[in-house]
Amino acid sequence: MSQVISLINEKGGVGKSTSSITISQILAISGYKVLTIDLDPQMNTSKVFGATENNDINYEPLFCEKLSEKESVMNYISETNHKNISLLSASRELNQLIYKIYDVSKEKNVELYFKYNLNLIKDEFDYIIIDNSPFKSYLTSCAIIASDKIITPVNVDNFSYDGLMSLFETIEDLNKKYSLSIEFAGLYMTRVTGRTTIYKQMFEDYERMFGDNFIPVSIRNCIAVSEANTIFEPLLSYDKKSTAAKDYIELVNYLGLMDNKHFREIAKFLKGEH
């Protein structure tokens, strides 16, 4: 049974898609079967994993109906050129889906249907990683409800306390409304440019404000991230020895997503042994 992890921040430019891609890749290289779901209409994650723009995808059954067969869900999923990574691609049609979910929600608890449908395929994957749009909507609520854990990247220069409080309240409200146990697994800092005074101050502020919900692993800014994103290539494929790649591996390990057996596989990859 797979674990579903959503990356969410209501602000853009925090490295959310880069995080989704890189966490998916690390887990896949270590030997886990991963499904990456892109719910951001910008399609950055989808493009990195080889998808092209396709406005003919009809997402409505996946989000607004209870599907009866696993195959109906698997039809939305495609293989990628990256071993152990499958993709449920985004498209511009997601913008229209938000309004459809809102309309249907007036008559039934449509927010639960995406979770129900993902449960049909959970035995096919070890992890399901969801890259969400930075805009709060019914689509984001569907993703949160379908998730076991939520993690949030934050930018030192682009922090929104109100946005995080809103996310915490949404998780709490949905847990109560549907008797769920969605866990906020933590927030971590991205695009860190050295241990500057502002970085140290923000690090201390995060620890003080969020306690155990603050992950003390920071993703350093490096040119490899920008270059990999420019050519739509996953970070570890582009430069597995980059500082950001090492930081993301530390993040995945800190979150407890890899056991020792799988961690050894990623270590072999870094050494060039596979």
Main features:
Rossmann fold, 7-stranded mixed sheet, 13 helices, globular, alpha/beta, 274 residues
| Ends distance | 27 Å
Report the oligomer: single chain
Give me the count of strands: 7
CATH-level-2 architecture: 3-Layer(aba) Sandwich
Number of helices: 13
- The coarse overall form would be globular
Judged by helices, strands and strand pairing, the structural class is alpha/beta
Total tally of structural domains: 1
Q: CATH class, please?
A: Alpha Beta
SSE map:
Elements: E1 3-7, H1 16-29, E2 34-39, H2 44-48, H3 60-64, H4 70-74, E3 78-79, E4 85-88, H5 94-105, H6 113-119, E5 127-132, H7 138-146, E6 149-155, H8 161-178, E7 183-190, H9 197-210, H10 223-230, H11 235-238, H12 243-254, H13 260-270
Parallel strand pairs: 1-5, 1-6, 2-4, 2-5, 6-7
Antiparallel strand pairs: 3-4
Give an overview in words.
A 7-stranded mixed beta sheet has the order 3-4-2-5-1-6-7, with helices on both faces. The chain has helices spanning 16-29, 44-48, 60-64, 70-74, 94-105, 113-119, 138-146, 161-178, 197-210, 223-230, 235-238, 243-254, 260-270; strands at 3-7, 34-39, 78-79, 85-88, 127-132, 149-155, 183-190. The chain has one domain (3-270): P-loop containing nucleotide triphosphate hydrolases (Rossmann fold). It is globular, with a radius of gyration of 18 Å. The longest helix has 18 residues, at 161-178. It is of the alpha/beta class and 274 residues long. The model has no long low-confidence stretch (mean pLDDT 91). It contains 13 helices and 7 strands. A hairpin with a 5-residue loop joins strand 3 (78-79) and strand 4 (85-88).
